[in-house]
Specification:
By secondary structure, the chain is an all-alpha fold. The chain has 2 domains: about 100 residues, no CATH class; about 150 residues, no CATH class. About 75% of the residues lie in helices and about 5% in strands. The protein is built from 9 helices and 2 strands. α4 runs antiparallel to α5. It is globular.
């Protein structure tokens, strides 16, 4: 067994930083149109977006968990997830999940000596792959454009309005041990915004022929948005716990004002599972 790392204390809460907000907005202005375009066109364009994200996520996970040999661990994780994603994109779902498990085992074996616990490399595959597979599946399904737009809008609204309402109203901390800057006011503000964002996408699907109808009544869509927002918050808190375990402040410095790719999509990875599950239940007729 490896030696456990000492757990670091979370950074003290900060005052609202308007300069950081402007940097965040500038970064979003560049990134959001690219993401929306890939979602809109779907197919290989969306696959390319996901694969690019996988490469960045594998690198950041390796930099956090395998500082002795990050390149090798990143390659092991990235290749394992890539193989599973290509199988999902081709519709071979019966082998997709076995490939994830085999890839996790292979990454652990290849990471011998590079990490204090080889389970960290295996977890990198298990952490990244399911959300990416869920997004690929979601976009390929009928009305996939609408459902995928809903996923991104719910995640963005939850994240943005949690930041804004928490910064404005402040109040009691949500979980100061792991994330001292998050508040209950931000938590509830993000949930309400996520639900409103989901209903907004449903309204667009009713008004614009280019966006397919999701086939679910708007009150149910509102609940799906709420649950997606909750998953976004949980994903953010989970990554905060992981960063504290590895003793890092951010997963990287790729995106100005946001940190690394993992800092940007931690909530999306959890929300993707919830939205994909809702889409599956709609397919089965459980949300009629």
């Amino acid at each position: 067994m490896g030696v456990l790392r000492p757990m670091t204390s979370p950074s003290p809460a900060k005052r609202f930083n308007w300069i950081n907000l402007r940097i965040r907005v500038a970064s979003a202005t560049v990134l959001v149109p690219a993401v929306v375009a890939a979602v809109w066109f779907g197919g290989v364009w969306f696959l390319a977006l996901i694969l690019a994200g996988v490469g960045l996520l594998a690198r950041e996970w390796a930099m956090m968990s395998a500082k002795r040999a990050p390149i090798g661990v990143a390659l092991a994780i990235g290749v394992a997830v890539l193989i599973a994603l290509v199988a999902a994109f081709r519709g071979h779902y019966y082998i997709t999940w076995p490939l994830v498990l085999i890839g996790a085992l292979a990454a652990a074996l290849m990471a011998r000596g590079a990490v204090e616990r080889r389970a960290d490399a295996a977890y990198g595959v298990i952490y990244i792959a399911p959300a990416c597979i869920a997004m690929i599946w979601l976009r390929l399904m009928p009305a996939g454009l609408s459902w995928t737009l809903l996923l991104f809008v719910v995640t963005w609204f939850a994240d943005i309005f949690a930041f804004v309402t928490g910064s404005i109203f402040k109040g009691p901390k949500l979980w100061p041990r792991f994330s001292p800057n998050k508040t209950w006011s931000g938590f509830f503000g993000g949930l309400v915004a996520a639900s409103i964002g989901a209903v907004g996408i449903d309204a667009l699907s009713q008004a614009l022929p280019a966006i397919p109808d999701m086939g679910v009544a708007w009150p149910i869509i509102a609940v799906i948005g709420l649950l997606g927002g909750l998953a976004t918050m949980m994903g953010d808190l989970w990554e905060s716990m992981l960063k504290r375990r590895f003793g890092v402040k951010d997963s990287g410095d790729l995106i100005p004002g946001h940190g690394g790719m993992l800092d940007r999509v931690d909530g999306l990875m959890f929300a993707a599972i919830v939205i994909a599950a809702a889409r599956l239940m709609a397919q089965w007729g459980w949300l009629s």
